């Protein structure tokens, strides 16, 4: 059983990822922290509480950062995730449950310290909370089990960016935080567009979840209608990228992924802001800004069919045995 903190900006694909996480018996969700991104911090926190109620998990939800590390509010992704970031479905005005009193990064520190060596952080939004937690308590780097991040793009399969030609949304949203997280001395696995854009959750599978996935399947089907439209218009796909799900899948079954190792830096500012670059494993280089930093793991390939089977099997309860 792996203890997991889910750091998130729900978000349509965040919601699917959280459904997957809470459906997996080998993962124990011990905390959810929110961060601005797919909408402002109040909206994504309300969404996290709504999902807690709908998915029925008991882990606390704490509100994290509403601004980037450098204090910027930044753009939201209304055209992708809808005005309320959950596809525009009707949501309760009042939060569906109590919010933990701690700030997101503080709850993260407390949970890691209470469970030394046992916690995996799955971070599927901007990395602001993680960078703040490291800044407040550097020791957490040696106390976590691992960090798995959905973000970045390294150019494999031609996937270089989704908010600029060279940058992915979660990293571009707070490049300074991402650079701090990737260069810290803790084991990070980066699940970027290189793999998330290789897996298409097609509309037929979404329909099957609606029919066979119980209340969760119906909710996921409802929140993906506009998100599907976005992918149909912008990508000519009859399906969606479920980016954040792949970070959860990596923790469940890393054998679905091919990876490579090396220090990773993020371009902070300028034309290429948010670009993620892993130092190639090929000498000779003069001394570089990558050298003093630990090697991190970058996913460069995925078994797409295996990934989709993991998702569908997890979210569709097995049919009851036939009556005798
Ligand atoms: C990432 O950006 C967000 O919009 C999604 O939820 C995902 O985490 C994809 O670039
Ligand atoms: Ca997200």
Describe the structure in your own words.
Helices cover 39% and strands 17% of the residues. The radius of gyration is 19 Å and the shape is globular. Helix 2 links the parallel strand 2 (27-34) and strand 3. The two termini are 36 Å apart. The protein has one domain (2-315): Inosine-uridine Nucleoside N-ribohydrolase, Chain A. It is built from 14 helices and twelve strands. With 324 residues, the protein is of the alpha/beta class. Bound molecules: beta-D-ribofuranose and calcium ion. Calcium ion (CA) binds next to helix 1.
* CATH architecture annotation name: Alpha-Beta Complex
The CATH homologous superfamily is called: Ribonucleoside hydrolase-like
CATH class: Alpha Beta
The shape is: globular
- Give the distinct bound molecules: beta-D-ribofuranose, calcium ion
Helix content: 25-40%
The neighbouring-strand order within the major sheet is: 3-2-1-4-5-6-12-9
* End-to-end CA span: 36 Å
What's the number of domains?
1
**CATH fold category name:** Inosine-uridine Nucleoside N-ribohydrolase, Chain A
Average pLDDT, rounded to a whole number, is: 95
**Rg over C-alpha atoms, rounded to the nearest angstrom:** 19 Å
Report the portion of residues in β strands. Answer: 15-25%
Q: How many helix segments?
A: 14
Major sheet: size, sense and barrel closure? Answer: 8 strands, mixed
What's the count of strands?
12
């Amino acid at each position: 059983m792996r203890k997991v903190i889910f750091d998130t900006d729900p978000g349509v694909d965040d919601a699917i990822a959280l459904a997957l996480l809470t459906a997996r018996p080998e993962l124990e969700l011990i905390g959810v922290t929110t961060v601005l991104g797919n909408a402002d911090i109040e909206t994504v926190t309300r969404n996290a509480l709504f999902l807690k109620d709908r998915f029925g998990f008991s882990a606390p939800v704490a509100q994290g950062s509403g601004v980037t590390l450098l204090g910027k509010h930044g753009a939201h992704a209304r055209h992708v995730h809808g005005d309320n970031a959950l596809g525009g479905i009707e949501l309760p005005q009042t939060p569906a449950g109590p919010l933990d009193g701690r700030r997101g990064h503080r709850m993260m520190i407390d949970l890691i310290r209470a469970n030394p060596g046992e916690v995996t952080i799955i971070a599927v939004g901007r990395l602001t909370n993680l960078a703040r937690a490291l800044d407040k308590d550097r020791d957490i780097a040696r106390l976590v089990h691992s960090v798995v991040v959905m973000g970045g793009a390294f150019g494999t399969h031609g996937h270089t960016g989704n908010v600029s030609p060279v940058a992915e949304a979660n990293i571009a949203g707070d490049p300074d935080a991402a650079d701090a997280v990737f260069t810290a001395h803790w084991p990070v696995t980066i699940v970027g567009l290189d793999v998330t854009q290789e897996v298409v959750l097609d509309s037929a599978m979404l329909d099957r979840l609606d029919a066979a996935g119980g209340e969760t399947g119906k909710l996921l089907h409802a929140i993906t209608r506009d998100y599907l439209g976005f992918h149909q218009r912008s990508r000519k796909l009859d399906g969606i990228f479920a980016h954040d799900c792949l970070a959860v899948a990596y923790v469940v079954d890393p054998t679905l992924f091919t990876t490579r190792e090396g220090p990773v830096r993020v371009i902070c500012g300028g034309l290429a802001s948010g670009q993620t670059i892993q130092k190639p494993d090929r000498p000779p280089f003069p001394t570089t800004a990558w050298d003093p930093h630990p090697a991190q793991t970058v996913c460069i390939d995925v078994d797409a069919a295996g990934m989709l089977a993991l998702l569908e099997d997890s979210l569709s309860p097995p049919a009851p045995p036939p009556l005798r």
